[in-house]
């Protein structure tokens, strides 16, 4: 079954509406509905909050503010506990960002709750806030706490000297705006207390982290918290940590002794859903005239907030991508009065590669070298900063296969030289790289006496196909029909996992499931079996000798405990290619075709993997051409905070795109040779589009996204 394009087991339930998402669930009877009221200022304090009119409004059951909310644990915004730490709400009268919840109204219906929230009178003492990175970039500081391990400085040799002595140098700054994950299903939580036990149905990426975070926030034992995230309509990083709605639902349900549901509206997601920080990135490259890099530097300044330390790993790509003796990467943070940062779709790689791979394209242009040839000349033999071998680095094959399939040889090296009527045509490419993470994961597999197989883990399926592929892994390992396997995920009480995120889900949980199956085979076939082999007739053997069934447990250790993580540089790789047409009349960029070639280890299911990768490529296009959160420079709110005006690609923006997953097996990644595919598609794609725009027009836009206004001045006369 591994390698088969199995359909998603939950596909029919999802397209028919039978799959119930958290906000639709009625597990505990009719729930009261909570509505969060967001602050109308971005910085300052609440002078007075009047709730009596709201409390008297029809259907209202409860109004919570900082004055009457139950005690919660304090925030520790730089704790290394990460996703599992306390996340208090209504912390006091201080306001730190626009839309920060200042009250929760709970009523019989959503409409009543929202209407009553409008009756709350809040007067503020507003202070002048800082909202844009560029104006405050000189406030940048080096983050120095334990949870930013990836974002510490890296330095080898002397970059300044390489830049001074380099025959050819490039020193260019790029900017990327704030992005929001915005899954189709917003965060949502249904909470209910039974005695001292809190039961929640919520949209989450990590079950164990949510349990810990709720327990810590509410000052109760983790064992008292029971979490279930059966169906999740996308995460993209925005459901890794706890958000306000879950804490609000739990607090209100405890007060009212009845189930309470809370979800942000789409506009509220643009306030309490974390943002990918806006960045200013300086890329420095020094090269010999024949295109050998002698120095590479990547300095990132990103927006942050005083209450929450979040550092995107933006410059880490530069540490492993190209060979060069002199190297420097640094992350700096500039605190602003905006919403908190959090992981968004390939955190780090997505904005980092926009800058670095645009710079490489520009350097190739200045050297008069083909962009692929420049990359080939700088392909490192070993990880240049860790000084260990790479494993599974098939970058050169990605370039070659992509160039062949895309028809790269037809590219004109002279920008702006291909024109079809009013359109300038260009093609571009970029490299893609994404860290391969591994987290401690457990799973059990049970073969019943009647032959049914059940896989169990608290791993989540956030829409990626996890429940499908884990069934495939078990069927394959046990040699049983796929149809006999069912998969139970995403509940507390099931074997713990780090859930879905960071592209780590498939590799972690597949290997744990595989090992659980090996444990079953050892019990059933004993010494008569060659280790690793799968003799036929497992179900019959279980029926004959183990009428009550057989259970096996399997696990995989976290990367800190895996010697292969010290001995090898672990990533997934790819190369992206794009062709665009740019109208000289309007400056509009239309994508004409796109190809990605990826080396991501063994592919369990080519259908679900391809869906992941092409979804990622669409987000890559989005970072290049569409997506930006625009913040009002006076008031600090996201002006385009809805899906009408926060522009993301729609079907009409995306032509046929092709993703090739190389036949691969990474023997140092894990026993199954699997790595993740969730984010590699985003990586590099944006820069490939940007480089195609440059090839088409000769205009290099360094402030993303590349909108028509930034191109028009450099385009030829339309007549
Ligand atoms: Mo991912 S953006 O780390 O869920």
If you average the pLDDT, what whole number results? Answer: 96
Shape: globular
Low-pLDDT ranges: none
Strand order of the largest sheet: 3-5-1-13-10-11-12
- Bound ligands: dioxothiomolybdenum(VI) ion
Beta strand count: 27
The portion of residues forming beta strands comes to 15-25%
The main sheet comes to: 7 strands, mixed
Radius of gyration from CA coordinates: 26 Å
- The first-to-last residue Cα distance is 59 Å
Give me the secondary-structure category. Answer: alpha+beta
Provide the helix percentage: 25-40%
Number of helices: 18
Walk me through the structure.
By secondary structure, the protein is α+β, with helices and mostly antiparallel strands. It is built from 18 helices and 27 strands. Strands 3-5-1-13-10-11-12 form a seven-stranded mixed beta sheet. Helix 9 (349-367) crosses helix 10 and helix 16 packs across helix 17. The longest helix is centred in the last third of the chain and has 21 residues, at 505-525. The protein is globular. The protein starts with 10 loop residues before the first helix and ends in an 8-residue tail after the last helix. Residues 205, 235-237, 240, 343-345, 347, 501-502 line the site of dioxothiomolybdenum(VI) ion (MOS).
In short:
With 719 residues, the protein is α+β, with helices and mostly antiparallel strands.
Keywords:
six-stranded mixed beta sheet, 26% helix, alpha+beta, 18 helices, seven-stranded mixed beta sheet, 719 residues, 27 strands
């Amino acid at each position: 079954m591994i390698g088969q394009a199995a359909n998603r087991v939950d596909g029919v339930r999802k397209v028919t509406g039978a799959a119930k998402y958290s906000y639709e669930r009625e597990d505990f009877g009719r729930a009261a509905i909570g509505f969060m009221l967001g602050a109308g200022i971005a910085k300052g304090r609440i002078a007075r909050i009047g709730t009596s009119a709201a409390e008297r409004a029809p259907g209202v059951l409860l109004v919570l503010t900082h004055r009457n909310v139950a005690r919660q644990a304090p925030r520790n915004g730089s704790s290394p506990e990460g996703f599992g730490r306390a996340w208090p709400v209504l912390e006091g009268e201080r306001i730190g960002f626009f839309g920060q919840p200042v009250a929760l109204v709970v009523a019989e219906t959503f409409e009543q709750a929202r209407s009553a929230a409008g009756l709350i009178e809040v007067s503020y003492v507003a202070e002048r806030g800082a909202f844009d990175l560029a104006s405050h970039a000189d406030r940048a500081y080096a983050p120095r706490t334990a949870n930013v391990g990836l974002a510490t400085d890296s330095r080898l040799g002397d970059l300044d000297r390489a830049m001074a002595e380099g025959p050819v140098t490039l020193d260019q700054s790029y900017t990327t705006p704030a992005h929001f994950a915005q899954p189709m299903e917003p965060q949502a939580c249904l909470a209910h207390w039974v005695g001292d036990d809190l039961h929640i149905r919520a949209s989450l990426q990590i079950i164990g982290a949510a349990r810990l975070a709720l327990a810590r926030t509410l000052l109760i034992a983790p064992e008292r918290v029971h979490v279930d995230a059966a169906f999740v309509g996308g995460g993209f990083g925005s459901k890794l940590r706890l958000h306000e709605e879950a804490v609000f639902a739990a607090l209100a349900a405890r007060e009212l002794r009845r189930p309470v549901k809370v979800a942000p509206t789409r506009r509220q997601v643009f306030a309490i859903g974390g943002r990918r920080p806006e960045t200013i990135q300086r890329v420095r490259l020094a090269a010999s005239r024949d295109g050998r890099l002698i120095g590479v530097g990547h300095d990132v300044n990103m927006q942050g907030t005083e209450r929450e330390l979040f550092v995107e790993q933006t410059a880490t790509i530069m540490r492993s991508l190209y060979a060069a003796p002199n190297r420097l990467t640094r992350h700096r943070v500039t605190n602003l009065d905006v919403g908190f940062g959090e992981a968004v779709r390939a955190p780090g790689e997505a904005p980092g590669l926009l800058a670095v791979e645009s710079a490489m394209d520009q350097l190739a242009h200045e050297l008069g070298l083909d962009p692929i040839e420049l990359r080939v000349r700088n392909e490192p033999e070993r990880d240049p900063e860790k000084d260990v071998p790479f494993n599974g680095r098939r970058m050169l094959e990605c370039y070659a296969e992509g160039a062949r399939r895309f028809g790269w040889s037809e590219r004109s090296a002279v920008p702006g030289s291909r024109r079809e009527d009013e359109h300038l045509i260009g093609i571009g490419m970029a490299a893609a790289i994404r860290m391969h993470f591994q987290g401690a994961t457990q799973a059990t597999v049970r073969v019943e006496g009647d032959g049914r197989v059940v896989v169990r883990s608290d791993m989540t399926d956030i829409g990626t196909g996890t429940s499908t592929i884990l069934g495939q892994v078990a069927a394959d390992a046990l040699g049983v029909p796929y149809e006999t396997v069912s998969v139970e995920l995403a509940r507390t009480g099931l074997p713990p996992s780090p859930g879905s995120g960071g592209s780590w889900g498939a590799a972690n949980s597949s290997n744990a499931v595989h090992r659980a199956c090996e444990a079953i085979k050892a019990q059933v076939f004993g010494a008569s079996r060659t280790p690793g082999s799968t003799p036929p007739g497992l179900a019959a053997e279980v029926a004959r000798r183990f009428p009550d069934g057989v259970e096996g447990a399997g696990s995989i250790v976290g990367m800190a405990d895996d010697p292969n993580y010290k001995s090898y540089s672990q990533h997934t790789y790819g190369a992206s290619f794009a062709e665009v047409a740019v109208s000289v009349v309007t400056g509009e960029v239309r994508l004409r075709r796109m190809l990605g070639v990826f080396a991501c280890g063994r592919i369990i299911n080519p259908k679900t993997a391809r869906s992941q990768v092409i979804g990622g490529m669409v987000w890559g296009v989005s970072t290049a051409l569409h997506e930006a959160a625009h913040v009002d420079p006076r008031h600090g709110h996201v002006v385009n905070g809805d899906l009408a005006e926060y522009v993301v690609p729609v079907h009409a923006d995306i032509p046929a795109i092709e993703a090739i997953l190389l036949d691969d097996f990474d023997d140092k990644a894990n026993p199954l040779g699997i790595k993740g595919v969730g984010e590699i598609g985003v990586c590099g794609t944006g820069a490939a589009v940007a480089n195609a725009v440059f090839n088409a027009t000769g205009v290099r836009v360094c402030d993303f996204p590349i909108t028509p206004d930034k191109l028009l001045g450099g385009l030829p006369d339309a007549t």
